[in-house]
Amino acid sequence: MNATEQLEKIKSWLNQADEKYLDAFASQNQTLISHICEIWQRFQEAKNITSLENNMLTIQPTETTPVYKKELIITLPNAKQDEPYFYQKTNDFPTIQSLKVEEGLGLAWNVEAQALDGVPIKSGEFLLTFQLTDGNTAHSTLFINPNPKYLWKNIPSDKNSRFWKPDCASSQISTDLGQLIAARMRGRTHAMKGTCCDDDFTIGCHEKSKFHFIAVADGAGSAEFSRQGSKLAVEAAKDKFFELLNIEGKDYQKLSQKNEQEIAYITKVMFKEAVQAAYLAQETAAKDYVIEQKSLSCTLLLAFTLPLINGKWFTACYWVGDGAAAIFDTAIQKIKLLGEVDSGQYSGETQFLTLAEANAEKITARIYTDIRDYPPILILMTDGVSDPKFHSDVQLNTFEAWQTFWQELREPLQKEQPEKALEEWLDFFSKGEHDDRTLAIFIPQSEWQGMTYTSMSNEILKEESSIVNEIVLQATEHNQEFANKEVRTTNITQNNETKTITLQKASDVQVQKELSNE
């Protein structure tokens, strides 16, 4: 298709396009349209236009007719904000000497490599002017696509909303045996709309029995008041566990002293009571607030760990819905899942805490237990964390994937306020993953001390390095000052006798040696 045919096609498109279509095209191609208008204006202003045999118009130069050189245009590939960009000119294009670009864009012209590179920190449409070594200039338009992260708004939730809760929260409990740390962060989907976080968590330690408890729940996105349902579920379950542990004369308080068979039985009873208490709390709330119980639907993950009298550690978990529950064992480099993910036929579909799931048999079937010789790293999370960090069931069962995950967690957990740092960490950006995120962890004291020791060591090393650099700088300045003196004196003590000696510059001593050799 020749140029005339292309123009005819453009005319046809313009005639058929409505006003909104034209506005959209114009806003996306401002620079291109500006160039075309400028060229057309030049053409119209020209004189002595003659029609040739091939029906093409051309300019016949005269003293009054301006002659324009062909404008050089560089076609640049689109860039992405906050991502490295590199474009190298082709060999057939003239050498480029410099580049005029908007200040602070993050891109620069590499004369030696004849390439445009850098990391653009802005987004939008930018006009670039290239200065060529032959004196001419070339123009180009660079489109920088925005970082998706910056397109999300963070609108605070309405505190007057029914069952309002803070958009994020965190908590930490320190015990003689370890650390209980948990945090939740409202997902970007909710933040964009200014709605509440549907996740919730709770943690606790029963001092007398050394019973360490963590729980997380993910409110159903389709349930109007699931944010309240998740809160009720975790708190009611925890309250029931601690209520049982506080009953004097019952086996619950003696759990650590029982044999494995007795422990297994008591654990089933405790979980049955706790899960049913969670369901009952939702049922009661639905009646009290005159709302459908279905509007409080949520997943529920409960776990506890405690030391036994024989020196071993017992851990148990109940898990209904998606998310993840696991023991991460760095000693033997293995991961043990404490349940199975409930995934439905469709994406995002899962099982929630319902009347059917509150049945004793169903509860018992979902209980997983573990006994080992040392305290475990126990982790619970909602799918807002597990989905972006473990993209498949295979990864969820892979130690290497968990090791990578744990290495990420170590940084916020080593901060001065680890629970707040964990809360902030949960705001990580993962394309397509914008759900609420909740994480609850029990970290044994030995592991915790290792983490804090590493953190302190790094700080000490930084401080020592800074001191050493300062000493070296001072010594260098002193030596320089010392070296600039023609004659220097110093004191030397030997055999309890101090003598003052005179030193000369090394260059002077060398000259004297050479003269004496002659």
From TrEMBL:
Family matches, as Gene3D superfamilies: PPM-type phosphatase domain
Top-level taxon: Bacteria
PPM-type phosphatase domain boundaries: 186-427
SUPFAM superfamilies per UniProt: PP2C-like (SSF81606)
Pfam families: PP2C_2 (PF13672)
Segment forming the signal sequence: none
InterPro entries, A to Z: PPM-type-like_dom_sf, PPM-type_phosphatase-like_dom
Coiled-coil residue windows: none
This protein's name: PPM-type phosphatase domain-containing protein
Organism: Haemophilus influenzae
